[in-house]
Design goal:
By secondary structure, this protein is an alpha+beta fold. The chain has helices at about 10-15, 60-75, 80-85, 105-120, 120-125, 130-140, 145-155, 155-170, 180-190, 270-275, 275-285; strands spanning about 30, 30-35, 40-45, 220-225, 230-235, 240-245, 250, 260-265. Strands 1-2-3 form a 3-stranded antiparallel sheet, covered by helices on one side. Helix 1 runs antiparallel to helix 3 (about 80-85) and helix 6 (about 130-140) crosses helix 8 (about 155-170). Residues about 215-250 have low confidence and may be disordered. Bound molecules: iron/sulfur cluster (SF4). Iron/sulfur cluster binds near residues 24, 47, 75 and 77.
Length: about 280
């Protein structure tokens, strides 16, 4: 397993359990906890700068960051620290989006992340260009309910969900990434040009949980026709229908169809009248 396949939590654990972690440059100085062990002339929080209520000019910030980076360059756990800080969380963001970590400024880590996403091989980029993927991406930009996305993309829910999962994988994002983050990355890749984005509150997953299609037995009740057994139960999972002594009925599960079919008929001819399409289908089979 490479470091890019490890989660942020794993990489952070590897960093903090490293035998030299206690000797890291940004640790508090044992003699003065407000100073930095790697450079006692620096405040212990120099890697992150003053708190939000203190102003800091651009020149001062550059100088502070340069000194912090100098400390990092002499740090025994710089590699592990950088691997963790530059890793990507499930929401698609950097594990440490602020401050100096592992010898790199926040802006450098962000640029590296964007460059890595753009460095996806051309062959993989072409795989975004299928009609289904383009349709699902555009649909996902306008809505997020699995049924709405499928309808907007012009396909069934199962296919739309599968394409959403495939898009997330191709974008190099974790499975539990949010819809907004996935769309932001897709936009960075130039896949949403001219598409208007309808935002959500950030909690909607890009890949929906398994969509529950209507389940339960479908029942065909037949009354008044003595030769028909009543009721006849048809299991949707069978998908083929049932055979009765006098007739055969085929069902194909269609999304949105009603689970219960009530039939009242006095004769077989009346059933033919009521279900001409089904009977014709049966005759053709
Ligand atoms: S690399 Fe820098 S930020 Fe990371 S532990 Fe070392 S001194 Fe601290």
């Amino acid at each position: 397993m490479t470091s890019t396949e490890k989660s942020s939590e794993q990489l952070r654990r590897e960093w903090v359990i490293h035998p030299h972690f206690r000797y890291r440059g940004c640790a508090p100085d044992p003699d003065d906890p407000m100073r930095m062990a790697g450079d006692p002339s620096l405040h212990v929080g120099a890697h992150n700068g003053p708190d939000a209520f203190l102003p800091e000019g651009q020149v001062e910030r550059r100088e502070r960051e340069a000194k912090a980076i100098e400390v990092c360059l002499n740090c025994p756990v710089m590699v592990q620290c950088d691997a963790y800080a530059s890793s990507v969380r499930p929401d698609g963001r950097l594990a440490e989006p602020e401050g100096v970590w592992g010898g790199r400024r926040a802006l450098e880590r962000h640029k590296a992340l964007i460059a890595a996403r753009h460095a996806v091989p051309a062959a993989s980029t072409r795989r975004f260009q299928t009609a289904q993927k383009r349709a699902v991406l555009a649909a996902l930009a306008s809505c997020w309910d699995p049924f709405d996305v499928a309808e907007a993309a012009g396909m069934d829910v199962r296919t739309a969900n599968w394409q959403r999962s495939s898009l997330v994988r191709l974008l190099g994002l974790p499975k539990d990434v949010s819809r907004m983050r996935a769309l932001a990355v897709a936009r960075e890749r130039g896949l949403l040009e001219g598409v208007e984005l309808v935002p959500d509150d950030g909690s909607v997953p890009a890949i929906p949980p398994p969509t529950r299609l209507p389940v339960g037995p479908q029942q065909l009740y037949m009354w008044g026709v003595e030769e028909f057994p009543a009721p006849v139960e048809v299991q949707p999972s069978a998908g083929r229908g049932v055979r009765s002594p006098s007739m055969r009925v085929k069902f194909k599960r269609v999304e949105g169809q009603e689970d219960l079919v009530m039939v009242e008929a006095d004769s077989l001819a009346e059933v033919h009248e009521m279900f001409p399409a089904e009977i014709a289908l049966e005759a053709a089979a």
